[in-house]
Amino acid sequence: MKKILFLLLLPITCFAQSEISNFWEYGNDSRGISTVINDQVDSYMILKDEIEHSFIPILYLKADGTFYSTTTSECGNDCFYYSEGTFKKIDETHIQLQIKESGQAGMCWGESITNTEPRDLGIFEIRTYKDRYDLIKINNKIFTNKKQ
Predict the structure, then answer these.
(1) C-alpha angle 85/114/75, rounded to 5°?
(2) Distances (CA, A) of 114 to 3, 62, 66
(3) pLDDT digit string (tens) for 30-69?
(4) Of residues 90, 108, 99, the one with CA closest to residue 146
(5) Is 3 exposed, middle or buried (0-12, 13-18, 19+ CB in 10 A)?
(6) Which helix (H) or strand (E) holds 13?
(7) Which residues are CB-neighbours of 121 under 8 A, at least 6 positions away?
(8) Are 127 and 136 in contact (CB under 8 A)?
(9) Listed residue (83, 95, 148, 89) closest to 122, CA to CA
(10) What values do phi and psi take at 137, rounded to 5?
């Protein structure tokens, strides 16, 4: 009975593993993200498909371990928010994010703002769904204890 159950669950496990490995494929393509990465948010939704000509926040994950996220606008005369930093692959389903610089630029009320104070955002669990990935911030102390 255990062998039959294992054989039934094997394709589901393999499919899920394949889907999460797609998260770690880097390229020059952009992905839609629920909001620009910042130190005020504990979860993000990242679309799986590359986006073109869409005016939602975008995320670039690069093979050198850096990221860039920004808002976009149809006409270009808007206030743009951005962040850039580094990410570290902890394991297949966990990522650590650090912001190196963030701010606003463009046609903003007041002036452009740049924050160059490094901020460690912590570790996020990567959850896989049919059309998206969710990054959910986890308690780093609990995660560290599990890994030991």
Answers:
(1) 90
(2) 58, 22, 18
(3) 888 999 999 999 999 998 876 666 678 999 888 899 999 9
(4) 90
(5) exposed
(6) helix 2-23
(7) 37, 39, 96, 97, 98, 99, 137
(8) yes
(9) 95
(10) -65, 135
Dihedral in degrees, nearest 10, Cα atoms 13, 14, 16, 22: 160
Number of Cα atoms under 13 Å in the Cβ half of residue 93:
12
Q: How far apart are CA 146 and CA 148, in angstroms?
A: 6
What pairing do the DSSP bridges indicate for beta strands 119-128 and 113-115? unpaired
HEC string for 34-75: CCCCCCCCCEEEEEEEECCCCCCCEEEECCCCEEEEECCCCC
Contact criterion met (CB below 8 Å) for 126 and 23 = yes
Higher model confidence: residue 12 or residue 62?
A: 62
Q: Cα(93)–Cα(123) distance, rounded to whole angstroms?
A: 10
Token duo for residue 72 = 């976009």
Tokens 């204890």 belong to residue: 145
